[in-house]
Structure formats: C-alpha cells, structure tokens
Amino acid sequence: MMLGGCETNATVPRLYVWVKVPDHVEKAALTEGRPFWSTTLVGCAIAINRTYFLHIGGFDTDQKIWGGENLELAFRAWLCGGAVVTVPCSRVGHLFRPLPYSNGSGWQQQWQKNLMRVADLWLGDYRRYFYSSTLIYPGRKTAYTADEKTSLAARFELKKRLQCRNFDWLLSNVAPEVPIPPHDALYHGEIINYRTHACWVVLPDGYLAITFACYEHKLIVDNIFSLNGDGLLMYKDKCVRFMFPLPNLKVERCPQKPTLEYGIWSVSYVDKRWAQIQVTHRHNDKITVYCVMHVTSAVEPHRRMQMPQTAPCVNDNPFQLWAFTYRFDYTYKV
Fold this sequence. Notes:
Blueprint: E1 2-6, E2 16-20, H1 23-32, E3 36-37, H2 50-55, H3 69-79, E4 85-86, H4 105-123, H5 127-134, H6 146-161, H7 167-173, E5 185-193, E6 199-202, E7 208-211, E8 218-219, E9 225-228, E10 233-235, E11 238-242, E12 249-252, E13 264-269, E14 275-283, E15 286-296, E16 306-312, E17 322-327
Parallel strand pairs: 2-8
Antiparallel strand pairs: 1-2, 3-4, 5-9, 5-17, 6-7, 9-10, 10-11, 11-12, 13-14, 14-15, 15-16
Helix pairs in contact: 3-4, 4-5
C-alpha cells in the first residue's frame, strides 16, 4: 500500500512520488478501513468540502493546463491548518482523454511555471533544489509574466491571511521520510545502471550490492546516495569507500577530509544523462582512475552476487554507465 509523497527537487515536471505506507498504518487501513495521512494528493481523485475549498483559496487559477495543482492544494491544506488523508475503501474511476495539447517546449515551460509557483509559494529555502535540478534543462527555462507575478503576489497575501506554517513544519510533522539532499550535493538519488536498469543498495554488512527494486515514481529511501563537491560519495551520514586492493565498495564512517588514499569520487558524462562514476585512488604514489561497473562478484563473501565494483574504465561499456536521479547546478540563482 502506498501514499502520496513529494520530493523537493524534480527533474521531471512533477514533485509527486509514491511512498510505502508504514506497516502498522497499512494493517489498520486494510483491517479497519482506517484513513491515513498523505503528504500530497492524486490530482485526478480529490474529495473536499466546497466551503472549506473556497475558504483556503480554491485552485491557483494561474496554474495552466495541468501539473502541480495536486501538490499546491495539498501543501496549502497541511500548512494552513487542514489535512490530507487517503481513504483506503474508496473507489474512483478516472477517464483519461486524449491530450488536446501539443507536447512541445511550450507545454514543458507551462509545467515548469506551474511547479515554480508551488516552489516559490511553499518550499521556502528548499526551492533551491527544485530550481538547480530543473533549470539545467534548456526546455525548462522560463520566467513569469508581469500578470503572473501579480497573481502570485495575491497568493502570498492569501498565505499570510490564512496564517500558514513554513515548509519545515510539514517535513518534520507530516513527511519526515522525505530525504533532503545535503546542502552541498551535486548529485543525489538512486544510482541506476544503463544496461540492467538496476540500482545500488547497501547490504546489512555495509557492502554495496545491486537491487532491481528501483525508482518507478516511488520514493525508496534505502536506495539514495549523494555525491558532493569534495568528492565524497555519501549514504545517509556515512561514505562509500573503495576497498583497495579489492574491487568492493563499502559504506563506512566518513573521513575528516577526502584524500586520494581514501578515494575521490567524480562523475564523467558521456551524454546528457548517462555517466561513468569514477574514483581516483593513490597507492604507493601511483594515481589510478577506476570506474564502477555492474558485475557478478567473484570476491568472497559475496561471490556470485550482483554488485557495483571498481574496474578499469572502458569507453562504451554499458555496464559502466550510471545515472543519478538528480543533478544540481547551483549557479542558477533564485
């Protein structure tokens, strides 16, 4: 059973993701039909009291076509004194008509504007992740018109009148499972392989392995890694270490500062999405660059397991090509 979640950064025109319902909540929902909290709404299936809906401002009428309205309304409900719940025993039919809109850059820019309004109005300081992960794509670069700025100012006045909380409150009280990228993260999210569509996961003993339970509009916290500008590849509050001379990768306590003896991580792109994930390592004054590769391990105690391990870099090897879910460029100021 899943509930609606969100991410503060989005390289596709939405911030909506599915999140696994905690086991105790799922049990109550399935055995008693008990509604449970949901951070966000599914845009096609909303039930709301009309008087309350109008009181909190209805839909943002300058969000055009569709995209983002389910997030904006959900954030407004939570932050302005209301709540959002999923009713497990409800049934909704959704007919999706053929889209009457062209799928050109204009539509992409309108989606972006819709989400910009969500980010600017509700995300606070977290909007830096949204802008730095979307404006790297030329088709997403856009700006408000004068009329849109005026209407957005009116929504800020509504927010003030409703005495709404800030986004930190929602992250602490409603969606504590949402992983926030480290402040200096350049790359963040799942690390998925080009050839196998599998991604990295950490075993109970700390070694990195491969899982095929990867992101498909779902938020899987245990699959999330970050790479910062200092060359540290991080998993939660720990770091990924190259276990030289073995090819294994293992999560350990982070060093006080990264060194070549420890291994400096970097990303080398071959196209707009896919890249080699490289670690530069020094041993006996010899510096070598290795690439991470999806392999069947020949090393005990994980022999025959699918794992990401270091190997000599080879051009055009699809098992050495990876993609992070998100890439950040903080030169785009907001």
